[in-house]
## 1
Amino acid sequence: MPHIEAQGLSINFPLYHLGARSLKKRLMAAASIRLREDDSHRIVVVALRDLSFRINAGERVALVGSNGAGKTTLLRTLAGTYEPVAGRLEVEGTIGALLDPSAGMDPDATGRENIVLRGLFLGLSDAECKALVEEAGRFSGLNEFLDVPIRTYSAGMSIRLSFAVATLMSPQILLMDEWFLAGDADFMARASERLEKLVVGADILVLATHDMAIVRRWCTRVIRLASGRIEADGTVEEVLGPA
Ligand SMILES: Nc1ncnc2c1ncn2[C@@H]1O[C@H](COP(=O)(O)OP(=O)(O)OP(=O)(O)O)[C@@H](O)[C@H]1O
């Protein structure tokens, strides 16, 4: 059965550019709970500290918390982008990650070429890739921009393209950051049905968001992070209170 289990999970980011001793001293003197000096005398940001939780099939989990709480870092760790410095993480199931619009995309390739690359990466045949280009191209509504290098795309255009490609998969574990819900109104009206299908089709959803209406609509459980720790973990009602 798909599941996620974390025990004592911690993530640090070393701040390599802080060479000056005086700056280091000043930062440490601020006694911030997020900054500390590691064994190699580097200043590190403690992004996640000692997180333990289990997410089972059927659960739709919202990660909430203020800016810098650790939501995106946790999603990226679950996706395998970051390696924990301590603790254990077990992720069982196929992962679909809607985390970064440009992840896995070649900026110098056109939208069309990127769709084909993604198809080949997923192991699709030439004919299936062609069908993918048709479908993703149509759905993205990028029209002639499909044949332009994606480094020239606006943020919204990149979202459209990655959304169109990503929502063609049907992962068991869907990891989603809220930028993914930030397309323009016209596109989101068309995209919402497809997104709902993807969310409903996944065994596990983990969504980082500041939008409590979305949490109440889609999620069954809320994990609230504060300064890289779990501050609350329970049903939507328990953590957010009654609607
Ligand atoms: N690449 C990085 N290098 C150094 N520090 C980082 C890096 N990525 C994140 N951090 C730090 O880790 C902490 C958690 O950041 P994260 O992006 O996970 O927060 P978040 O809860 O997603 O915030 P937001 O709601 O603003 O998106 C922050 O203190 C941030 O400064």
## 2
Amino acid sequence: MTMDITRVEQLYRELLVAFGEDPDREGLRDTPRRAAGFWRDFLGYDAGRTDTAFAQEITGDHLVLVSGIRSWSMCEHHLLPIDLGVTIGYVPASSVLGLSKLVRITEMAARRLQVQERIVERIAAEVMKVTGSADVAVTGVGHHLCMSMRGVRSAGARTVTQSWHGRFPHDPHLAARMLSGTSEGKS
Ligand SMILES: Nc1nc2c(ncn2[C@@H]2O[C@H](COP(=O)(O)OP(=O)(O)OP(=O)(O)O)[C@@H](O)[C@H]2O)c(=O)[nH]1
Ligand SMILES: [Zn+2]
């Protein structure tokens, strides 16, 4: 996706006029540039390398779980932020993924116009691809500003979405670990 940053800046200027504002007044003069810069950085985010994995002999039933991942996304219906907490678990097949890559994968999925369900689906699909593991679970806990600062104005509402695959939905031990990992990540 390529962004026409000059056009975005122009449109912000027009938007300020449509708001009834004077875009040339001192406080607003640089606002179109700043606002366009935000969208360029947010939507143009480059996650970098997401697939560094290390061969690892796995003994027994090994679960890798990273909780407390925090990311910002943008609700595609209202263009308002989603503050998202993510927990990712996977059972390695024959290699382990560099831990930071789980955060990079999350950012890659979140930094676009999104719905929460699609973010967690996309993270899970990517983790399955780069780890080669079928046992992958992703849980997202989202605070949607479109539900708190406008609309229904339900400040405490949190949306939980899960994309659990392989043994996670069927194995009570794995499911329990995922659930406790999700609550650890809330702190
Ligand atoms: N499934 C899903 N819905 C979302 C997400 N983010 C926002 N929404 C919902 O998208 C819906 C859009 O509904 P509309 O009726 O078209 O828009 P609206 O009149 O602004 O709706 P209200 O938010 O109820 O005021 C709302 O119910 C939002 O809560 C998301 O990540 N996933
Ligand atoms: Zn919304």
